[in-house]
Amino acid sequence: MFLEIKDLSVKIENKNILKNLNLNINKGEVHAIMGPNGSGKSTLANVLAGKEDYEILNGKINFKENNLFDLNIEERAQEGMFLAFQYPVEIPGVNITPFLHSAINSKRKRMKEEEIDNLSFAKLLKSKASDLGINIDMLKRSVNTGFSGGEKKRYEILQMSILNPDLAILDETDSGLDIDALKIVTDGVNKLKTKDNSFLIITHYQKLLDYIKPDYVHVMVNGSIVKSGSSEIAAEIENDGFQKFQ
Amino acid sequence: MNIQDNYQINKKNIFFSENENIRNHREKLMNIFENDRFDKKNNESLKNINLENFLDFKYKYLVPEETSVINNNHDNSYSIVSVNGQCTSFKDDKIEITKILEEDYNDFSKNNTIEKNDHFVNLNSLFLNCGFKIVVKKNNNIKIKISNIVADDDLTIFQKNNIICEEGSSLNLIEEYENKNNSTSNILNVIKLEKSSQLNHFLIQDNSPSHNLIITSHSSCKKDSSYTQKIYNFSEGYVRNFHFSELLEINSAADLQGIFFLKDNNISNNKTFVKHLAEDCKSNQVYKGILNDRSKATYFSNTHVDQVAQKTEGYQLSKGILLSDNASYFSKPELKIYADDVKCSHGSTIGPIDENAIFYLRSRGMSKIAATKLLISSFINEELSSIDEEQISEIIQKKLVRYLSKVK
Predict the structure, then answer these.
(1) Between helices A149-163 and A118-131, what is the axis angle to 10°?
(2) Gap from A218 CA to chain B (nearest CA, Å)
(3) Per-domain residue ranges for chain B?
(4) DSSP states of B132-185 as a string?
(5) What is the ipTM of this complex?
(6) When you count CB atoms within 10 A of the terminal residue's CB, does the N or C end of chain B come out lower?
(7) Which of B298, B321, B303, B305 is nearest to B377 (CA)?
(8) Residue B353: is its pLDDT beyond 70?
(9) How many angstroms away from the CA of B136 is the closest CA of chain A?
(10) What's the whole-model pTM score?
């Protein structure tokens, strides 16, 4: 199993958010989690990425044969986990290019691969940015600073394509995107899909799933997955809402 | 020993003690100390420090054996090694350097912008033992680098400098303070910018824990002139930076900036004050601090806009990062506006490093310590990237790397 989440319960500030959640993802699969506001979708994404604000009450998570809780935030990233943030943080003064260069090399170092030099990285970045319709001038700017909502999401996908993760978690990547931006972003995701990597897509709406075809759709309500199945569930939700699952 | 006795014993070594006017002025200053008239409680310069350590001192001053001024005509630059606050006299067609004279002292004592209750400035006037005057002659564009060296242990340096930029001149002044001995330097700079002149003043402060540095400056700007001051404080000893600017005539500008990097038990007190006294003038006061361990800092800024100073633009900003729960930074911006057509603002943000930004960077594979260091560097990125002088930029980068190496 690539990612195995078993009986996971999590709380924050005395509020139980995830309750005995179970989810298995195999290599090469695309899973979508849909759910109403406050159902715990983003908490799941943050817990997977290692955010330290949460208290794990019970359960376990295995990722690529590792106990995920034994890995800190950066080790998870270096092992191939990537979270595309719902609200990417603005970091004035941190230039995109050296930051991404440093990020890719920290991963390669852990994987005992040769570090990528400045010139090769510049070429890689330029080509990936071009694929995503990102202006080269944007790469001279600070991380997410002064970006529009669409630019931030596009930049998240650029980072994903550079870091080439084994498991990418997309937390409401579609929110705040117009239809053209949504198409560019989802094209970027589809280009990355291989039989060796997996995706966990968190969304409210079916629209995103029109562009990225999931193998499985899960409905999450009140901290648990209440239904799993094929992409037909997404259409069901689009028609009837989440009411009937609650 | 009280101030009076200290003065009487050492007056032979103190500048101008034979001059009657100056003696009278000093009598008045001594009365202030004797009568304890200054307000300790509300005096910003006294926050976080033990005043007694500075008042009860053993006076010691040594006349240096040699100082030097090297003129490099090739690129209009001068290198000065000032030892114990003294500098060799020098004159060419672009600059003139002399000792300070009695008339310069009188000039200082009549200066109304100098705070009368600032006991550090009063101590400076009482025990004055060194200082020099630099005049940049009309329409010259030059660069001066001064290495301020204190050559012995336990010295008490009381120094007044006078810097004059004549009409149309331009000066890049780089001052380095890197002293490793157990001494105290109390320096007052009085800076005058004549019409259409420009002074870019960089102060790099990097003293050891046992060296105290107290710098006060008063700059005044005439028509179309500008004074820019950039301070980089990496000192491990106490530093006080108090800087005042008067915009006397139309279209003049003052830009007072500082960055300080504190750790251990270090303390830094900072103050900037700009007085707008004419129309169409601009000012900027920006201080940023990074505080680790149990370090403490204060920063007071003030923009005063006189009623005649219409079309003023005045900005103040204070920002601080606290790397430890035990560090503290107290900041107080003030605006006093008596004109009605002005653009002024002030702001202050102090807090720990942004945990969301740390999480974001770590989620891309960067270690916590690397992310923290990156965010500290980014906090001052704007100030560092705006340094035009490559030489200064390299020095600051090295000192920043040294500071960051201690951040855990």
Answers:
(1) 130
(2) 25
(3) 3-352, 360-408
(4) EEEEE-TT-EEEEEEEEE--STT-EEEEEEEEEE-TT-EEEEEEEE---SS-EE
(5) 0.96
(6) C
(7) B321
(8) yes
(9) 37
(10) 0.90
